[in-house]
Amino acid sequence: MNWDLHIKQFENYLRLERSLAENSVEAYRRDVEKLNQFLVLRGFDLSVKDVEAMHLHDLLEYISELGMTPYSQARILSGLKAFFQYLLNEEIINKDPSDLMEAPKIGRKLPSVLDYHEIVELLENIDLSKPEGHRNRAMLETLYSSGLRVSELIGLRITNIYRDIGFLRIVGKGSKERLVPIGRSALKFIDIYIHDVRNKMQPKKGHENYVFLNRRGAQLTRVMIFTIIKNLVKATGMKKRISPHTFRHSFATHLIEGGADLRAVQEMLGHESITTTEIYTHLDRDYLRQVITEFHPRQ
């Protein structure tokens, strides 16, 4: 029996015996699929009987590195515990690998991931009556749309925007390059900024190709991005601790919780591959575009 069949039977159990709502069944299914995807990423060819606690620990560590909050990790673990309890009750397995696992400590620390409505609230509170407002809107739309690091955002070049295919060429850590999908909303605000604001500026020599410039026509700094976000959060009255990385974490969390493939999210974030084989490290461009279109809430 394969994973797909076990998952299908688990779904039927949740619907018929536990009478769960369809959205709850869907959430449980995605949790189990994440585990299966992760095992494939690791290069394991395991049946459900072969899964051990260490595999679950590794999964939680991995999704934590992708930016998921302890709350989201705990929710996924809860779904996996339900799956393995079902398998145990059906005598498909004789030992529950999740039995002694504890959920990550959530604590009282304010979360570093924004809900989608909070993303929208921040974006819509940017003052577009000022020239820098169009730049700031374009920057934050891009951060959330593509999950960029702050260094990648300030280093984004005009010649690395491929509007025809909806991708950005990003130069990440170690000067490694990757192609990342960008949504229509972010592209729209980039175009507004470039055509209505940036084109009226005189870029400093050597800064002509950077997308986002300060008032003096120079490339923005990391500190400036942090300051822009800090001031925006203060203006909206939000109490969360929000930084540029919060948008990156939110990007990853919303995609994964929406059902996106873990390896696709890893590829878009530019994380080092967690497998020694090359087969999973460079996914088809059309597939990454499909993942963004299907699972990102701002498309």
Task: Tag the structure with descriptive keywords.
mainly alpha; DNA polymerase, domain 1; three-stranded antiparallel sheet; 3 strands
What number of domains? 2
Q: Helix- and strand-based class? A: mainly alpha
CATH architectural grouping of the largest domain: Orthogonal Bundle
What is the rounded Rg?
Answer: 21 Å
- Anisotropy-based shape: elongated
Overall pLDDT confidence: 86
How do the SSEs run, as a string of H and E?
A: HHHHHHHEEEHHHHH
CATH fold node name of the largest domain: hpI Integrase, Chain A
- Report the end-to-end length measured between terminal Cα atoms: 37 Å
Q: Which segments are poorly predicted (pLDDT under 50) over 5 or more consecutive residues?
A: 273-282
Strand content: under 5%
